[in-house]
Amino acid sequence: MTSHRLLCLGGARSGKSRYAQQRAEVGEGAPVFIATAQPFDDEMHARIARHRADRDGRWHCIEAPLDLAPAIDALSGQGKIVLVDCLTLWLSNLLLAGKPFEAEATILTQAVARFDGTIILVANEVGWGIVPDNALARKFRDDAGRLNQHMASICDEVMLVVAGLPLRLK
Amino acid sequence: MTSHRLLCLGGARSGKSRYAQQRAEVGEGAPVFIATAQPFDDEMHARIARHRADRDGRWHCIEAPLDLAPAIDALSGQGKIVLVDCLTLWLSNLLLAGKPFEAEATILTQAVARFDGTIILVANEVGWGIVPDNALARKFRDDAGRLNQHMASICDEVMLVVAGLPLRLK
Amino acid sequence: MTSHRLLCLGGARSGKSRYAQQRAEVGEGAPVFIATAQPFDDEMHARIARHRADRDGRWHCIEAPLDLAPAIDALSGQGKIVLVDCLTLWLSNLLLAGKPFEAEATILTQAVARFDGTIILVANEVGWGIVPDNALARKFRDDAGRLNQHMASICDEVMLVVAGLPLRLK
């Protein structure tokens, strides 16, 4: 089986998750959904339920809010199609847990780079607004931008999704 | 007359309105401008006046801050070129008026889908920054993203305008 | 020597500065870096140092936080490759110094338009989030959008950089 790494970027409600799911569902192999979202509150509960309703019945779902690299490694070479949704929420969980960005980003990038099979990653573009007032938000958007650059550099295919429409970047 | 539906997306001051106007002005048929802006304050007055100064003398202007679907229906089959600027302000008016998003978005999407003639829609991309602090802003950007997806799915042509330059998405 | 004007647009941490530097480093002629950043605080110091570490040893560096047009004029016709990083920080310095946008933007645009040689400009896209609460931020993003449109109209080549990947706009 040839490995394929696809990164789906986009703003909030750009249709990037749906596009990524469609790409996974037309592939060969059982689709596995790795969710990074944590249902802290009602709003997040509703968001997760909405995403779940979009997926067909074949999906197996795994939760990995923080330990994403081991979850990816465990699925390597299994003939599955792995969808990670999304890297930006994982980054947010990382910062909340006080874990260092550079070290964790390196570990995750390596896990994606060595993955044997098809892996599809979803991530948010968050740096296209005005500079945020507070330092934490600035660090978050800087880290998110760096993470997207790291992932784009090792992926075979990168799509920017705007209003549900994919635009090829790589 | 063949119908054509064009959606022009872009950030603030991306040149999307000017691009949309130029597309309307080279078309066959008298151009009609449907404005969704409401001149609440001096800033908005100035913004509306600036947009008006960009348009040539042939334009007929209609204001439809809320009842956009009936305004579009009334112009269907008249041989006009209709420009709606913009959907995102209409959405903002909708939320301020306490109207439900899903029902209104469906009505509007249907009006655009059945329009007989050339219709050009302008909308803002608002979901590319960090997650807003307050729930209302989050709902607004989610709704705006969904509305853009709905419109993109029924339009024949979708352009993303960046720094005045159009990039074809569909 | 044929003149070439390249504008590199992108969000925060999109890789636009690195892309611009790589383009400068493969060109013929000694590269000159015109920095508009002012090291007000530790965060900005670190940001400037990080950008400097990305550049190879051949670079000559000039600081022009406000008087950007004269700095560009002085390098015209010298066979250098000039990189200005970035226009959006220059705009920010302009507003802080209380200088009028339209007049200064016109002067800068003219200096770029008459530049004899290769000039590469970096600028931020800042208008893709929700409307900012405060009027100053709204003016800043409007001015930034207008400046990017002015520059794009006179440049020979415009690239949008997303996750380190360039997308041609012109």
Automatic annotation (TrEMBL), chains A, B, C:
The active site is at H51. Its EC number is 2.7.1.156, 2.7.7.62. It catalyses: adenosylcob(III)inamide + ATP = adenosylcob(III)inamide phosphate + ADP + H(+); adenosylcob(III)inamide + GTP = adenosylcob(III)inamide phosphate + GDP + H(+); adenosylcob(III)inamide phosphate + GTP + H(+) = adenosylcob(III)inamide-GDP + diphosphate. CDD domains: CobU. Gene3D superfamilies: P-loop containing nucleotide triphosphate hydrolases. GTP binds at residues 10-17, 35-37, 52-55, 63, 85. InterPro entries: CobU/CobP, P-loop_NTPase. Pathway: Cofactor biosynthesis; adenosylcobalamin biosynthesis; adenosylcobalamin from cob(II)yrinate a,c-diamide: step 5/7; Cofactor biosynthesis; adenosylcobalamin biosynthesis; adenosylcobalamin from cob(II)yrinate a,c-diamide: step 6/7. SUPFAM superfamilies: P-loop containing nucleoside triphosphate hydrolases. GO terms for biological process: cobalamin biosynthetic process. GO terms for molecular function: adenosylcobinamide kinase activity; ATP binding; cobinamide phosphate guanylyltransferase activity; GTP binding. Keywords: ATP-binding, Cobalamin biosynthesis, GTP-binding, Kinase, Nucleotide-binding, Transferase. It is an enzyme of class 2 (transferase). Pfam families: CobU. Belongs to the CobU/CobP family. PANTHER family: BIFUNCTIONAL ADENOSYLCOBALAMIN BIOSYNTHESIS PROTEIN COBU (PTHR34848:SF1), PTHR34848. Catalyzes ATP-dependent phosphorylation of adenosylcobinamide and addition of GMP to adenosylcobinamide phosphate. This is Bifunctional adenosylcobalamin biosynthesis protein. It comes from Sphingobium lactosutens DS20.
